[in-house]
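FIELD: query
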Amino acid sequence: MQMSPEDSARLRRLWDELPNEECDGCDACGEKCAGDIAMTHWEFEQARSFLALRGGPARPPETPARGAFGPPCRFRDDTAGRCHIYPVRPLICRLFGLVEWLPCPLGRWGVRVPDGIEIMRWYAELGPRTYEHWLSASVKNVHTEA
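FIELD: result
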């Protein structure tokens, strides 16, 4: 789904304006990084390009199921205790610790984005899909164009 120029500009502004301080490395929130994270096509392209620049695969490695929250996010690096795509993580990940429904597990941050619900309603209208969906769609497009 192609975003309008206005929506694209708004998403980029949100990325720039949301508080982006890295925590002190406790990684308590990382235990909640689970499932297939939805992202816009633009965010997918950011993640794919970032992985390629780092020499990583366009398709992040499969990760084994674990934890109470289900299978971990495919971008979660349990060994390093970090996200493979942290600098280009999707909006939902950027909101972690900043909105009431995704609080910092250690209570270090309060609600810093009070309009988070409205942001997520707008974001849902952009048609976010999983990384795997976008990757599969881009592979299909390559095959149909050839």
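FIELD: remark
The chain has a mean pLDDT of 82.
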